[in-house]
Amino acid sequence: MAQGTVQVTHTGTSRWRRRTGEYASLAAALEAAAEGDVLTIAPGTYRENLVVERAVTLRGPEGSPGSVRIAPLDGVPLTVRASAVVQDLHVEGQDAAAPALLVEDGTPELRDIRVVTRSATGIEVRGGGRPTVRRCTVDNPAGIGIAVLDGGGGVFEECEVVAAGQAGVAVRGGARPRLERCRVHHAAGSGLTATGEDSALEAVGCEVYEVRGSGVQVTGRATAHLTDCVVHRTTGDGVTLDTDAVLTLADCRIHDIPENAVDLRSRSVLTMTRTTVRQFGRNGLSVWDPGTRADANQCEIFDSTGDYPAVWVSDGATVVLDSCRVHDVPDALFVLDRGSRADVVDSDLSQVRNTAVSVSDGATAQLDDCRIREAATGAWFRDHGSGGTLNNCTLDGTQTGVIVTKGADPTVERCTVESPAEAGVYVSAGGRGSFLDCRVTGSGGYGFHVIDGSRTTLRKCRTERCARGGYEFAESGTAPGTGGPVVEDCTSDESGGLAPPAAPEPAVQTTGHSPGLLGPAPGRTPPAPVSEPEQEPRPSRTVLGELDALVGLESVKREVRALTDMIEVGRRRQRAGLKAASVKRHLVFTGSPGTGKTTVARLYGEILASLGVLEKGHLVEVSRVDLVGEHIGSTAIRTQEAFERARGGVLFIDEAYALSPEDSGRDFGKEAIDTLVKLMEDHRDAVVVIVAGYTAEMERFLSVNPGVASRFSRTITFGDYGAGELLRIVEQQAEEHEYRLAPGAPEGLLEYFTQLPKGPAFGNGRTARQTFEAMVERHASRVAQLPEPSTDDLTLLFADDLPELP
């Protein structure tokens, strides 16, 4: 595109300026223009470095967006130092040391400008610059998208950073911009970042997503205020605060975060109001270090995708949850380390797979008027110096309501534990605790179970309908000064007062079918397992044929056949009186979800049964939640029970790396691993164990557990399916359900699977099946409108039935 001319419309009052002028360069036009003049730029490419120092209007022709390119070979393409209006320009820069558009002073208005550049910064505001930037876009894969520096400010409305090689928006050096309804995505650094004393960022109605780093990062005494903003699909933390940072989140939504949704450290302060946090891989809210504080009011944290506590408070930090909801998470609240504190008021903690509230290492937690529902453990005060208060709380549908161990000393007042599967309150290993006016109803075990001479105080407590009894005090009496519990004015529906102390008995029942920590109720015989009729194993040739029929997995099939051949030849050599090579049958399966690991494990078990290596060949699939218990000693029991269920077959442990998290210092997963290794050694011929998970995570798991690694003979890697293999799965699904692919549909499916993002959420075979199901639903919506559909109408799936790409 050649350079055009510039039409200058003069508005001055001098006679010699009462005319318009046309100039061959932008520099000449700017030199001739006076305050208030309008410079209309003809379409073309201008290799000039423009400096606007008067309050003029600089614009491209109406109705021709992108037709005017400001594209010098180096330097800053466009510098604004006055309260000018600049609009409808396409700015391109090539200087890695300079911005593409620089505002240094004044209050200019920048409208509908597209910056496509490979510069240090797309748009940079500094010093006295206070622009209003509307509907501008920045595409700068080499540097920062928008930078506001050195005391600069301004308002950015409906702007978009479509790509950035570093941060999407960077604020530092005391700058104070405001973003309204902006979008920042595909940045190689943080989406929004503010750093340095007196720096402040305000964002309203903005969206940050698809960034390779933190969505929002505030550090070094900077402040930020986000209202009605969305942060999602990052590769790092959703929101990060560090070193005296201050952030307010109001009515925000943070989701689809693989790491911590919100992470605070080093005396940072966070205030969250009416904000939701969901689908996070580590902690929903993570707070560290003395002086660091997070206050959450009317917030919701839920739907964890990892195996970490939703709220983590450690190293002397403080968290306040007021009228909040935490649900559908592995653990709700963990408070660790002396000086750490959590205050929870009028909040709901529910659908918690493990522990709702865990307090350890000298930390403190205070819960007032809270509701804990459907958790394995309601509250666990773990060790010496750990304590706090539960006041007027309800714990409903837990395995165990409150656990106190190893010298912990909480105060529990006016609380109710309803329908626990095991004990309402369990105190052991020298735990203390004071329970005042508390009630346990409908327990599957004891109401209050105090063992090991724990010096617990019970006053005005009551139990009702407890299967094993209201109170059990093992290895101690009830009178003061005996070293055991102090019990005053406590009652049970079994009698008017407290029953005499029972004889000591083990805290953990180790019978094969124990329902939990405290074992079955006295006088109750556990039901015998229902036995199913034994079935003859299918011939190995038949099972191998089913394996061969699976789509793809060629390398996996070769590995399984090679292993099967080794075992078969070994058996034949033994029958011939020859030595047979020792073959370890335990396997490691690595790969992404949906690649057929469980299916192959099931077939492998059948093959071994057909060869007489295993008695039954059945598959028992478990994960961390099935093996790791919440009570001291219960993990070993769960692991033993899972191993027993798999006796004669295959024990398949999915996501086995979760048994050994990177921060495993306070985790019971190691106990499960140790128990499993011993069982594999003691019963080496009874069970085949297969551990499975993502490739990188399984490599780490095996590297940190040499005892586990030595038990496995080989690793089989399941690769992701290609587009053609996914198409074959859809074709199989269609044939199985009596559908047909119309002409053009296979090509449409190939194109669809080729373009489908292959990120962490990609499900391989599961994705193919979901695609088929979506096509069937769209087909049904279409055919339901036909008055008399033909057989072709009822069976043909077209390319138009494909769902939209995510």
TrEMBL record:
Keyword field? ATP-binding, Nucleotide-binding, Repeat
Positions of the Carbohydrate-binding/sugar hydrolysis domain:
41-172, 313-474
Domain annotation AAA+ ATPase: ranges: 583-722
Q: Which domain of life is it from?
A: Bacteria
Task: Cite a single GO MF annotation.
Answer: ATP binding
Q: What InterPro entries does the database record attribute to this sequence?
A: AAA+_ATPase, AAA_lid_6, ATPase_AAA_core, Beta_helix, Carb-bd_sugar_hydrolysis-dom, CbxX/CfxQ, CbxX/CfxQ_RuBisCO_ESX, P-loop_NTPase
Which residues does UniProt assign to the signal peptide? Answer: none
Q: Which SUPFAM superfamilies does the record associate with it?
A: P-loop containing nucleoside triphosphate hydrolases (SSF52540), Pectin lyase-like (SSF51126)
Pfam families cross-referenced by the UniProt entry: AAA, AAA_lid_6, Beta_helix
Name the Gene3D superfamilies for this protein.
1.10.8.60, P-loop containing nucleotide triphosphate hydrolases, Single-stranded right-handed beta-helix, Pectin lyase-like
Report residue spans for region: Disordered.
473-543
Name the family the entry cites. Belongs to the CbxX/CfxQ family.
UniProt name for this protein: Right handed beta helix region
Origin species: Streptomyces prasinopilosus
